[in-house]
Design a protein that fits this description.
Largest sheet: 4 strands, mixed
Low-confidence stretches: 187-195
Oligomer: single chain
Order of helices and strands: HHHHHHHHHHHHEEEEEEE
Helix content: 55-70%
Number of strands: 7
Distance between the termini: 69 Å
Shape: elongated
Number of helices: 12
């Protein structure tokens, strides 16, 4: 338990709050996707083994969000957190960082040095840094030690994307070093507390210049990282718009055009095999169909399954599909189903356009 009443702890938290206010101002245009990601991250910080469906339920209970387990999976996949073992490694690392930070916040120099060392290390055992590890560490600190949230900064943290959250995490470390006089990670000499005198000594002036140079360097780096993040978000937004377009195209409202293209193509192939001469009047229509199929392929939109194929499935096989038929009596019961809609996916970004649709086949007597 952190002693929130201690004056130096209060001073650190006040510095952290000021840093948060600066970050929130820079990230004034908040995206719903960012908030959703951070909320999901905060839930898995509390329960490392939580399943996507249960996470979706927790999102509803804690934040009033309506999500499906599949949507949670999509978020984890987009942030490279779908691998369960790597996710556990990341969360374990973040938990260790949070524990060191809590003790450093109480004034432990040894814990601060361990915190500085651990937070710079790769979170994954493969030796790679995870894109979201600093963001996850900041969230983990507030989830494990909610008593430090005297300014409601955890709510503001939900508004920060990866770059701003990462630099806020750096600010949290700097706040501890500022108050306790611990050496910052960019400095070689021990930090000296400013003298109460109004006029700086030569050494204090040099120290202040060094601090300002570090701040300027970090700000410039943060601005470049924000630009990179914006470019990534723009690319992701384009991919989502493309996926949304094909989702509408394959909706029942427009007659499931993608599915129908597969049916027409199969019919054309059958006619060619039988050497059937098509009326010249419909050649233009067939050319249009071929061009549409080529457009779909060039857009890297691909079917998930083979249409009209017949499969043996159990309940878990149809969990993330649209199933039409009698209920499963048990998890082990098998049913014969026909793929009436193959489902579609945008291959480049692994975005699901539509779910496969199964229809139960009648048992032969």
């Amino acid at each position: 338990m952190i002693k929130i009443g201690d004056q130096k702890v209060k001073d650190v938290l006040a510095e952290i709050h000021r840093a948060m206010q600066r970050k929130v101002k820079k990230g004034s245009q908040v995206k719903e996707d960012i908030v959703r990601e951070n909320r999901i991250f905060s839930i898995i910080c509390r329960d490392h083994d939580i399943e996507p469906r249960k996470c979706a339920v927790k999102m509803g209970e804690r934040f009033g969000c309506s999500l499906t387990g599949n949507e949670v999976i999509q978020v984890l996949r987009s942030r490279k957190l779908s691998n369960q073992s790597e996710r556990k490694e990341l969360l374990q690392w973040a938990g260790e960082v949070a524990d060191y930070f809590a003790k450093a916040l109480g004034g432990s120099r040894e814990s601060y040095e361990k915190f500085e060392k651990r937070r710079k290390e790769p979170a994954l055992k493969s030796g790679k840094k995870h894109d979201s590890q600093d963001r996850m560490a900041a969230l983990m600190i507030y989830e494990k030690y909610p008593e430090i949230d005297i300014y409601d900064d955890s709510d503001s943290l939900m508004l920060l994307g990866s770059t701003l959250a990462r630099y806020f995490f750096y600010d949290m470390a700097d706040a501890v070093s500022e108050v306790y006089g611990f050496p910052q990670h960019r400095e070689e000499k021990k930090k000296v507390q400013p003298a109460p005198a109004k006029q700086m000594t030569y050494e204090q002036a040099l120290k202040r210049i060094s601090q300002l140079e570090n701040t300027l360097e970090r700000t410039n780096t943060m601005l470049q990282d924000l630009q990179d993040e914006f470019d990534e978000q723009l690319e992701a937004s384009k991919a989502k718009e493309l996926a949304d377009f094909f989702t509408r195209l394959n909706s029942e409202k427009y007659g499931c055009i993608l599915d129908e293209l597969l049916v027409v193509r199969k019919g054309m192939d059958e006619l060619r095999k039988n050497n059937y001469e098509l009326p010249i009047e419909i050649n233009g229509l067939l050319i249009m169909v071929k061009k549409l199929i080529q457009f779909v392929r060039d857009s890297h939109i691909e079917p998930i399954m083979k249409i009209n194929s017949v499969k043996e499935v159990v309940a878990s096989d149809v969990e993330f599909c649209n199933y039409e038929g009698t209920p499963f009596a048990s998890m082990d019961e098998t049913k014969k189903v026909k793929v009436v809609s193959p489902g579609w996916i945008y291959k480049d970004k692994e975005l699901q356009i539509s779910r496969p649709k199964f229809k139960e086949e009648e048992n032969e007597q």
